[in-house]
């Protein structure tokens, strides 16, 4: 398995997983040998491995318990084990994790936001509207699931989540359809929810699947992603050394706006 591969738990097949904008990330962080950098979303380890290859030391965080399988080799490799530490945890608590690991102050912090391709590939995690699986969407495996939200929230609250976190302009229409459907039977699968959203959507040409924005909204709500981002940005200010660098990869306007402000 190469540095940029991961093995899909669903298939057991290794497939390439190249980090987004790796060259730009390294340029922004300017890794220095011996200095400690925090990778706030380890994933399959592409960014962390590149930092280690540059001679830097890395503290890796990931809320997903599945990430541990991808960092074991770095903990066991004699070339990296002294320069690599890993913790299952949310980057909202990055300063506390860095303090506990004894690596403060940090020379750099990397936050790679959103859901990973690995998580989307795992139907049993419930992130993908194109694959049928349990309606879960939890990064860490704890707390309320997406099924809890769509089956329990009042219609107005559900519509507000779809509008705020998914910027879904048909949020009220979709929420009304969800509430009507759950009265017949509760939602348990991603396929059932995606089909209900698609039926509720107005006709006409579409550039994307009707459920994309709603699934994004539910995932953000389930994991409090925007709250975690705000906490992480504040924590990074106090965790970074003078002249330290913060790099954030964001993928939609809600994240982007928070980072810029």
Beta percentage is 5-15%
Q: Mean pLDDT, rounded to whole units? A: 88
What fraction, in percent, of the residue positions are helical?
Answer: 40-55%
Give the end-to-end Cα distance, rounded to a whole number of Å: 40 Å
Which regions contain 5 or more consecutive residues with pLDDT less than 50?
1-16
What's the tally of helices?
12
Q: What order do the helices and strands follow?
A: EEHEHEHEHEHHHHHHHEH
Strand order of the largest sheet: 5-4-3-6-7
Structural class: alpha/beta
* Main β sheet profile: 5 strands, parallel
Task: Tell me how many strands there are.
Answer: 7
Whole-angstrom Rg: 20 Å
Characterise this structure.
With 261 residues, this protein is an alpha/beta fold. It has twelve helices and seven strands. The chain has helices spanning 22-29, 46-53, 68-76, 94-101, 117-121, 146-152, 155-166, 171-184, 190-200, 212-223, 225-239, 253-260; strands spanning 5-7, 14-16, 36-39, 57-62, 84-88, 106-112, 240-249. The strands form two sheets. It has a five-stranded parallel beta sheet, sandwiched between helices. Strands 1-2 form a two-stranded antiparallel sheet. Helix 7 crosses helix 10 and helix 8 (171-184) crosses helix 9. The termini are far apart. Mean pLDDT is 88; it is low at 1-16.
